[in-house]
Amino acid sequence: MTLTDYRQKRDFNQSPEPEGKVVKDSCKLVFVVQRHKASRLHYDFRLEMEGVLKSWAIPKGPSLNPADKRLALRVEDHPYEYKDFEGVIPAGNYGAGIVENWDHGHYTDSENSGKDTEIKLLQALKAGHLKIILHGKKLKGEFALVKLKAKKDNAWLLIKHKDSYAVQENYDSEADTPKNSPINQWLSKSNQNKNP
Ligand code: MN
Q1: What pLDDT is recorded for position 115?
Q2: Stated pTM of the model
Q3: Where do the domains of the chain lie?
């Protein structure tokens, strides 16, 4: 059961996060990037495979600049419905803080298509080298997710490939976030409460 870790870490009587029933409503594979203000602000990158969301936490957020190699720490699989989750995870719960959708869309395998795609993707995940094409609002084009062999076994890198969607200038995912996003509003409210 691939969601065991996810469920063990959470109390669904307290957290509004989905428990996970693996319901799929489209034949396309989805991806989502959630901006998550927990003890630290980070970005959660999730790719649908075998009915769940394979997940990585990216401390610095994704980049469209191929020169950036963004550390992506593999975390527990999340349920498919998590792609739509936004909201506050109450204090005292795993990942307490607030989650917002930063980007979403569907994705394809750069090298395979057709009915074996998911099997090939799972093999590539196991081998530690995924090549995917993201069709999001912010993230577009080809990316690689590469497992670091020398490091802890959850350390990967997310790297943009050179294509027409790549940028050469500095890319900052924070600057690509609306000033009035739910997290930014929540942060400015909690700052006001601290400094009346
Ligand atoms: Mn997170």
Answers
A1: 80
A2: 0.90
A3: 3-187
